[in-house]
Specification:
By secondary structure, this protein is an alpha+beta fold. The protein has 13 helices and 24 strands. It has 2 domains: 6-208, putative glycoside hydrolase family protein from bacillus halodurans (Beta-galactosidase, Chain A, domain 5, Distorted Sandwich), CATH 2.70.98; 224-620, Glycosyltransferase (Alpha/alpha barrel), CATH 1.50.10. It starts with 8 loop residues before the first strand and ends in a 6-residue tail after the last strand.
């Protein structure tokens, strides 16, 4: 059995679980009941034994996928010699009309447009990452899959029967034009076959997604023109990745999709990286989704309350906790035979200094968009900044989570400076709070001097990967003007951009993350977010034409549905890494915002501030007029 390109998948979900649906009508990846749960279908990671749920024509066919406008409801249209039909796939969001009492479920509606057309259903669940092959038993209006500790019921108006030669169940149906068929998979519970009710649920789900996107629809959207639809799709991807129960952001709904075929750089991304916080808050707030930004801001603070500042992990489970032990599933061959397949992530145990800057920056950005902290929140922030004062000069694993000895990564120091800078800015603007401002200012200056003395190449005049390294590049340093460490027109910023273009960038818009050893064998593919950081740096520098050209080139690698993985194979143009990737879509939104802010001319930098730049009048943009409130001031 062959593997599909990642571009041939669409993602659906209920904000707790996410499934990938192939253009051939096969659901090849779906953990239930949550995105971080063991998989029920995993053909994506082992085409032979992983398990799938397919609905498709019996005849050979051509197919195309699209989302219903401004929703996460997916439509796959099949065309055969005898007719055409569309499969509508969705998961009921609890907040949608008619969905609140449903268990985790997959809905598949088939509508015949021309025909007659014969379709088949192939239902082959494999619980616990295909380690538990369930028994399939017939029930009224469907079949039930019973495993050691799990149960799933497929209700359908298509007659289904357990297969005689494999563990699944199969059935066929012939539809005439205008006829429909429903198949609904309920996890652990039976969902009675009620087509009229199912249609009401579908209508409610469509209304939910369209209602959510209304703030970034039309002329009021800060991203207009040709990029509007892709920015809207990216926001819908992020909403899917926001865990409905906790508000955590899942980095991607998949595990172990390789950064390069045949390599070992295969990681589980079904967790919450707090590094994404500031960029997520910025992207969603600018598109009008303040509730999600506010929820994520509070979640990050809550994580910090439960840890000593020196031991804050960079990544969490979506429900909190420590269940991220990294393990290898030897029985799965991996996507396109790219083993190992991993679950869990050892980055949990790493020390990554940049996360302190990103946490403080997320707090700062939230305040810029009108969020007020309590005095308890302020105390948490002060503890973080105090730790930065004590530990900024330590080596760490860095933003790219290197599996080598710790280094003095320049970007980590830049984010320590950012933590101090934004903390000072907030303290100066806030009322009724105490902060050791002289200590913070002195430390900020010490960090700045160290970066400029040890983090800039003498012969290239650009930022390098680590202190003491005069030649190795890191694209994370493209964020120097974004966080306001130096202005975009500074010679060292421009030299960093030019060195990146010369040594890490390809002609088609792609950019590799860094140079040098990272402790792993093999090579990686260029990263989408690094490519988009270059776009933002160019836009902020007033090099708008270059930024637009590279942005448009990157967008050509997006799937027909507008989805982006983590990386792109420079030889084939195929997407690589976990899919769809939150960081890539955050980068797309922020890149589009930076271009929207940029001056149309190329005569100089845009007049508007950097997307995450320091606001010189932070108190003026706080809608309440206060940055910090005492607990009695809050409801």
């Amino acid at each position: 059995m062959q593997y599909k390109r990642l571009e041939e998948y669409g993602a659906i979900g209920d904000r707790n679980a996410i499934a990938l649906v192939g253009r051939d009508g096969s659901i090849d990846w779906c953990p239930l009941p949550h995105v971080e749960s063991p998989s029920v279908f995993a053909a994506l990671l082992d085409a032979g034994r992983g398990g799938r749920f397919a609905v498709r024509p019996v005849q050979s066919f051509d197919s195309v996928q699209r989302y219903r406008d401004r929703t996460n409801v997916l439509e796959t249209t099949f065309q055969t010699a005898s007719g055409s039909a569309t499969v509508t796939d969705f998961m009921p969001v609890p907040e949608a009309t008619g969905s609140n009492a449903l268990p985790p479920a997959l809905f598949r509606k088939v509508t015949c447009e021309s025909g007659p057309l014969e379709l088949e259903i192939a239902f082959d669940p494999r619980f616990d990452y295909a380690r538990d092959v369930p028994e399939i038993e017939p029930v009224t209006d469907g079949v039930v899959a019973v495993g050691d500790d799990e149960r799933a019921v497929l209700s359908s108006d298509v007659p289904l029967a357990p297969s005689s030669d494999d563990p699944g169940a199969n059935g066929t149906v012939t539809l005439d034009p205008g006829e429909t068929s429903w198949s609904v998979l309920g996890y652990d519970e039976t969902i009675p076959l009620e087509p009229a009710r199912f249609q009401e649920i579908l209508d409610g789900v469509v209304d939910y997604w369209r209602g959510w996107t209304h703030d970034c629809d039309g002329s009021d959207c800060p991203v207009g023109g040709s990029w509007h639809d892709l920015a809207t799709r990216s926001s819908l991807v992020l909403k899917l990745l926001f865990h409905g129960e906790t508000g955590a952001v899942c980095a991607a709904p998949t595990t172990s999709l390789p950064e390069a075929l045949g390599g070992v750089r295969n990681w589980d991304y079904r967790f919450n990286w707090i590094r994404d916080a500031a960029f997520t808050v910025r992207a969603l707030s600018e598109l009008g989704h303040l509730e999600e930004a506010r929820s994520y801001f509070q979640l990050c603070l809550d994580h910090c309350r439960h840890h000593d500042p020196a031991s804050i992990p960079p990544v969490y489970g979506l429900h909190g906790g420590d269940g991220l032990e990294e393990r290898v599933l030897d029985h799965l061959e991996g996507y396109r035979e790219s083993a190992p397949v991993r679950i869990g992530n050892a980055a949990r145990e790493q020390h990554q200094l940049d996360v302190y800057g990103e946490l403080i920056l997320a707090i700062y950005e939230s305040v810029r968009y009108g969020e007020a902290m309590t005095t308890d929140d302020w105390a948490v922030m002060c503890d973080l900044i105090e730790y930065v004062c004590e530990g900024w000069d330590e080596p760490d694993a860095g933003i790219w989570e290197m599996r080598v000895d710790r280094e003095q990564f320049v970007y980590s120091k830049i984010m320590c400076w950012t933590a101090l800078d934004r903390g000072i800015d907030l303290a100066e603007a806030a009322d009724r709070v105490d902060a050791p401002l002289e200590r913070w200012r002195s430390c900020r200056e010490a960090v700045r001097e160290a970066i400029l003395e040890q983090g800039v190449s003498e012969h290239m005049n650009c930022f390098v990967r680590s202190f003491g390294d005069d030649d190795t590049l890191d694209t994370a340093n493209l964020l120097v003007p974004v966080v306001g460490f130096l202005p975009p027109d500074d010679d060292r910023v421009q030299a960093t951009i030019d060195a990146t273009l010369n040594r890490l960038a390809t002609d088609d818009g792609l950019v590799r993350r860094y140079e040098g050893d990272d402790g792993l064998p093999g090579t990686e593919s260029p990263f989408v977010v690094s490519s988009l950081w270059l776009v933002t740096a160019l836009a902020l520098s007033g090099r708008t034409d270059e930024a637009v050209d590279r942005f448009d080139s990157i967008l050509e690698f997006a799937s027909p549905l507008g989805l982006l993985a983590e990386a792109v194979d420079p030889e084939t143009g195929e997407q690589r890494g976990n899919f769809p990737q939150a960081y890539s879509h955050i980068g797309l939104i922020n890149g589009a915002l930076s271009l929207a802010d940029a001056d149309d001319s190329t005569d100089g930098p845009p007049a508007s501030p950097a997307p995450l730049g320091r606001d010189e009048s932070i108190a003026d943009v706080v809608s309440s007029g206060e940055i910090v409130r005492r607990p009695t001031d809050t409801k």
